[in-house]
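Researcher: Structure for this, please.
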Amino acid sequence: MDASTGAGRSALLRRGLLLEYLTLTWNVAGAVILAIAAVASGSLALAGFGVDSLIEIVASGVVVWELRGESGSQREQVALRVIAVAFALLAVYIAIQAAIILAGGSRPRRSTLGVIWLGVTVVAMWALAYGKRRTGMQLQNRVLMTEARVTVIDGALAGVVLLGVALNAGLGWWWADPTSSLVILLYGVRESRHAWQAAA
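Model: Predicted structure, token format:
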């Protein structure tokens, strides 16, 4: 699609907004489902991924705000910095909770609901990320491309968390659950730094 014409750019903006609305809808549902699964099983990994879903909602909302507004570096900087702060807060939350659970030896129970949702999320996030990256490149929009990276890594995180939850459920390796949540911590730090640097 040609972004050099007004009609082409408008169509790309509509596609970008649609992808973000789909991401928002998925993550709203995911936050609810993961909260239920985390409470039922006592899983830090599921709770952490649920918080990640909430932050994804914030990130998508910021991108929608940026795409629907007038283009400009100041608006883009604000959007990227909001994303950066959100992921820094995610890292802090996971660090505190993982330390408490690993120190206390709390053992999460198996969660079939969590396993199913995480498996489907891997596929959904990677499909959405592909669409966002392609659209962002055509629009030359750094915010959409940054959020596309967040989405693809979100799919990878779902896979890692799925592994930890499945090892706990299948082999009784309780420590695999909180340990897998530490990957989310590293991801949060990395993406926070990347978004903040992109805003500079």
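Researcher: Any notable elements?
Model: Residues 49 and 76 are 26 Å apart (CA to CA). Residues 6-41 form the longest helix (36 residues).
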